[in-house]
Structures are given as C-alpha cells and as structure tokens.
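Pipeline run #58 for the internal structure catalog. This entry was flagged by the ingest filter as a single-chain record with no existing model, so it goes straight to prediction. Upstream metadata was stripped on purpose; only the residue string is passed forward. Reviewer on rotation: M.T. Logging verbosity set to normal.
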Amino acid sequence: MSRFWCSSGLGLALAAGCLLPEGSIDPNLPDELAGIGGSSGAGAAGTGGVRGLGGKTVDDLCPTTTDPEEACAEYCDVYAMACSDFVGVYTYANANDCAVTCYRARWPIGTTSEKGSIMCRCFHSTLALTEGQTPHCYHAAKDPTMGGCQVLP
C-alpha cells in the first residue's frame, strides 16, 4: 500500500503540502479580509474563528443571555452576516429591522434545540456560516422552514 501512495499523484501532492511554508494573515487587513483568526477556511462549530469576525468562534456568536434585546441583537447580527445575501429567505431590511422584529415578536430566548426560539435561530445562523446557507438560513429565518427551528402546528 505504501508503494501506491508513493507512486500516485496524491502521495506527491500530500508530500508537497508538507513542504509549503507556513502562511499567516496580515494583521493590518480589516476583519472582513483577514480570514478567521489566523487560519484559512471556516471553523467547525465550536472551533476556530469565523470569517469576518476577527477570530471569534462559533461559541462566541450566540452566548447565553437572559436579556431578550441582547439575544435578538446577537441572532440578527449573525443571521445578517450569514444570510443577508440569500434572496427570498432573508426577509429583513437589515440587522436592525431583524432585531426590532425579533424583540416585538417576543420569541423565547430558549436553547439551541428549542423550536421557534432566538437561540435556535442564532445557532442555525452560525451553521449557515460554517456549513452553508442551505438549509440553515431557512431554519434561522423569521418564519423558519425546512425543519430546524420550525414550529409545526
């Protein structure tokens, strides 16, 4: 088996990758361009930073709070970042419109697994950042669909 790896293009590519110089992020770049906390690619849930957030982790995006106004602001900031360009799903005018709507709707703060809650929406917003907009932007929407935070009758 080791002969296969040595003679294949994949083996050569893997070996070459180990010889590349270690990269770094220019600290003078704005957060939106600096990548994620000094590494490349999107971090997995709970690890690494999230693109454009100056090295914050997914766990930093939706911290536990008992203040509905703060919870709405946190959800809406992340949802706008993850889904504002997802036409037809993101129905708010901006993050502020989202926060006002959230607060006035009196959604429960809840937990990441509580359907219809702010924290569920915030959690799925972070998943949209790290795992892709579909289906997570649908899950985190004002009126969630496709499962996730959707409350079924």
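catalog note: The CA atoms of residues 81 and 129 lie 8 Å apart.
catalog note: The chain has a mean pLDDT of 74.
status: ready for reviewer M.T.
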